[in-house]
Amino acid sequence: MSLARDFSTRPQRRRQGLVLLVLSLLALGLAAQQALSAREARTSAEARLRRAREDAALLRDRLSKLDSDRGGGIGRQALLARVAPPPRVLADVVALLPEDVRLDGLDLSYGRRIEVGLKVVARRAAAYDEFLERLTASTRFASVRPGTEARKGEVRADVRAQYVTGEEGS
Hints:
Layout: H1 12-69, H2 74-83, H3 86-94, E1 101-110, E2 114-122, H4 125-137, E3 141-150, E4 155-163
């Protein structure tokens, strides 16, 4: 065995380093391409969002004009009906009912605000009182006004309230 170096073959390490360098450059190029694509997508999404906000502002202005032209009714009613359709209002009422209270009737009036008329039947007066407390504490209902009550055996009562959509200030 000779101690002299063999210069006839290339060292394997240099090839591996070159392959790793090429792969790294390819990965870097791919990452740069994806970053540019993501940036373009973000810019496009921001432009769509800006257009949607402008459209919403225009529609809100048109709705305000319609309301003022017609005395403030139809446009507001349409907006409230879209934001708070009857099934949603009903679900919010039912979520507040204690076990011993049932909803016997629901009357919704869409105007400048959503007026809710409830007819409830409770097995016990305490359950009815608990329902009133829940309704009053709820962020979805305001101006809760208990109406007529019949407290013989089971409680039968009428309750009026306003449904709060979060669009009231618009």
